[in-house]
Give the backbone structure.
Amino acid sequence: MNTSTRNLSLTIIDQEKFDQLHDASLYLMENVGMKIEGARALKLLQDNGALTTSDGLTTIPRGLVERALKSVPKELVLYTRDGEPSMKINNVNPVYFGTHADQLELVDPLSGNVRKFLRQDTAMMCKLADYLPNIHFILSVGMSSDMRPKVQSQITFLETVKHFSKTINFSTNNIEALNDIIEIAAIVADGLKNLQERPFIFYLCDPIPPLAHPKESTEKLYICAENRIPMVYMPYCMMGGTSPMSFAGTLAQCNADVLTGLVITQLVSEGTPFIYGSMPSVFDMRSTIGSYGAPEFHLLVAASSDLAAYYGIPFFGTAGCTDAKVLDEQAVAETTMELFSTMLSKANIVHDVGVMDHCNSVSPELVVLADEIIEGLKHYIQGVQVNTEELALDVIMEVGPGGHFLTNLHTLSNFKKVWYPSLFSRNMQNNNQSQVKGKVKEKISNIMESHLVPQLDKTILMELEKWSAKLE
């Protein structure tokens, strides 16, 4: 597992602030209530002490939250398509990154133009992500423009699982697609039991802020929990639009929504894996977008990761994305700031690497650049170790005042510990024009030509082809 070990950390929410935010979230759940739809989830809540008022709001007692927090797993292991451990989330607090298998639009790496995302592009995105060492999972969304909306999610997942050997995060356009994809994933895993024991998939599901959990969301939670498929529950709030125009109020509201999802999953199947997600961004009053590059967004994502850490629940973060339309100075500045913030935070699984134009498009070039930036930041977050070996007093004594370390055996043994970038320049004499974009394009071209994604077993491929034929 190629992961990042944090020896530095950023704490935004201390114990006192956590206690206040936790109490505020419980107050919202117990006194304001949630708009919860979906007969199965609602009945389950009511059978366990939740009350639904005449105006359709359901209040959830804190006892249910406390019970859910006790039963939810504190460690999560996700696997590759072939059943090998890929991402291990625990109190060591590692961080893993993922990009998209599809999106509404693609920033074409050959032409540089933005165009509609096509089914055939999924294979390219998967191959790229499969090769890059700092991309640990891919998100299959179901947005390709050249497929029928009803089967977009299923077909995108089929394309993804055929062309990607690591872990797959997925979301679906409807409930039927979720059931289909679990069935398809079970074929790849050689049975639902194997899929449950070594999950190579995890699901992404959202409530609708503020404090609304429609049938689509609660039923998806229910299906994942009864099948024991790991899932993310992630409210996307926009301050001033779908949450209060305050940091603390937005965090409390998002937290209440996440805890509601947690309660439902644990009532369905105690001990089912659950991942805390939160996207508390800003509603830009000038453009009316929910910003993906706003510094406030990534401050609150880091703060939310603190909340999840206090609960002991894995956290699903957001970084490596931008509001920019094309790969420019804004895109690189926002991407770098976000990656730095999230790598200092307590986020575990971080999505949206390479996403542009406030989540309208994905850029293969930005994914490659982000992979390089992550590699550099891994050397930053290792921190400074102080011990006899690292102090190297004997080496300093050996070289002595006025000497140099260039030919010392200690240098020969250790010089590769520092980072040597592959895309960024440290030449003695640099060119007058940037060479980075050319190197990125060349790297993408080389990956497409030379990287081979391991093929699935022929028997499995035949079963997947049957699914494709049925859907098309």
Observations:
- The CA atoms of residues 92 and 363 lie 31 Å apart.
- The chain has two domains: 70-380, 388-417.
- The chain has a mean pLDDT of 96.
